[in-house]
Amino acid sequence: MEAGGHVPYAAPSRCTRRCGRLATEGGRCDEHRRKAWENRSANDLKLTGADRRRIRKEQLQRESRCRLCGSDVDLQADHIIEIADGGAPFDADNLQTLCQTHHDEKSKAERARRAIQRRSTRG
After folding, report:
1. How far apart are CA 73 and CA 63, in angstroms?
2. Got the DSSP string for 51-98?
3. Confidence check: pLDDT of 43 > 50
4. Residue 94's pLDDT is what?
5. Does 59 share its domain with 88?
6. 3, 17, 52, 123 - which has most CB atoms within 10 Å?
7. Are residues 107 and 72 both part of a single domain?
8. For the whole model, what pTM was predicted?
9. Domain span at 13
């Protein structure tokens, strides 16, 4: 501690986008700082367990088989446009029924697409 009981600030860090500028907020310089609408907090996007159960129940009443293969086993209510991508969490038009296999395949492809998108926007 310095005289007077104050803890010194940490040394300034560089922008995580490796542009060489000093970071001002969130590890990024002013130019690379995220906009207010980008990458909403995961906490803002989460549905409660009760929400998920209600959505699943309502969706399976509307559509009781996998939209892709017709299976009626291990069904999931799937957001066509994922919530993380701006899809409406409670809109029936943004829901489809998928079996667990097709749901897993779609989710994996969406994660890969987002990863590629993140890499292509860096710099």
Report:
1. 13
2. HHHHHHHHHHHH--S-TTT---SSEEEEESS-GGGT--SS-GGGEEEE
3. no
4. 92
5. yes
6. 17
7. yes
8. 0.61
9. 7-38
